[in-house]
Amino acid sequence: MRKLIIAGNWKMYKGLEDAKSFAREVAPIAKGMDTTNVVPILAPAYPFLAVLQRDLEGSPVKVSAQDVSSHPDGAFTGEVSAAMLASLKLPYSIVGHSERRAYHAETNAIVREKLLALMQHDICPILCVGETLVQRDAGNTKDVVVDQLSGALHKINLYNQGEIIIAYEPVWAIGTGRNATGEQAQEVHAIIRKWLKDKYSETLANGISILYGGSVKPENIDELLAMPDIDGGLIGGASLKPDSYLRMLESAVKRANGEQ
Q: Tell me: the pLDDT tens digits for 193-233?
C-alpha cells in the first residue's frame, strides 16, 4: 500500500516566529494521529529548516527543502547544495516546481542535475511536473508531462519506491482557486503511473506516491484522495494555516486507515 502524503509548500511566506508558532500548534496534534500510512511534510524557506526540525521533533511531521542547487559546491552566491541539506539530515526536497521553471528558467536538464544531486545524498526528491493553461487547452497535457518526466529522469535508474515522489501540478490551477476535478487530476496521474510502468516496472510504478498540487484545500482533499492514483497533495496556500493543514492531514489519515 502506498502511503498518503500531505506536503505543505510554504513558498516565500512565514517569518521565524510564525513558523515556530505553526510548529508548536501542529506537532502535538499530529503526534496524536495514527500516521502509520501517512507522511506529513512541511517545506519552509531555507532559514527555518533547522528551526522546524527542532520544533517538530517527536512528531510525525517531516521537513523538506523547497529547492536545491544543481552544483555540489563553489562560488554560487545564494545557492544551497544537496550536501548542505544532507548535513541537516533532511529527508526531502522539492525540485522542478513550476515557479522555478517559470521565474528561474529551469529546464528539464537542470531539474535532472538537481535530482541527481539529491539522490547522491540520499534525499528523496519531490519532482514536480505539469502543464500551463495554454498547453492544456491545446490538448498537449500528456506530451508536456511525459516530456518533463523523460527529461528529468533521463538515464536515471530507480530501484525502489522510496527514491522519488512525483507531484502533478497543473500550472493553471496553482494559486488561482481553479483546481482540477478529481477526475481530471486522476487522468494525468494515470498517465504518469503508466509512464513509470513502461520505463521501469509495474512494481515500481505501483509503489511510487504521486501527489496532486493545484489549489488543494480541505474542501476538495477528500475528492482527490478518493482517486486510485492520487496519493496526497503538494499544497500551497491552504498549508499556511495550522487548522487547514491539520484538517487535510486528518482526511488523509482517515482515508489511509479505511475510515472513509
A: 999 999 999 999 999 999 999 889 999 999 999 999 999 99
What is the model's pLDDT at position 171? Answer: 86
> Which entry of 97, 99, 113, 189 is annotated as an active-site residue?
97
The count of structural domains within the chain is: 1
Whether the per-residue pLDDT at 179 is higher than 70: the answer is no
List 131, 163, 169, 250, catalytic entry: 169
What φ, ψ does residue 162 adopt, rounded to 5°? -85, 0
Q: 50 vs 176, which has greater pLDDT?
A: 50
Question: What is the spatial distance between Cα 182 and Cα 225, in angstroms, rounded to a whole number?
Answer: 8
Q: Is 71 a catalytic residue?
A: no
Alpha-carbon torsion 21, 26, 10, 124, what sign?
positive
Q: Which domain holds residue 32?
A: 4-256
- What was the pLDDT predicted at 180? 79
What's the grid cell of residue 203? 512494481
Reduced to 3 states, what is the DSSP secondary structure of residue 22? helix
Please report, for the domain that includes residue 241, its CATH number: 3.20.20.70
Q: Where are the beta strands (DSSP E) in 10-152?
A: 38-43, 62-65, 92-95, 124-129
Q: What is the largest CA-CA distance in the chain?
A: 52
Specify whether 97 is catalytic: yes
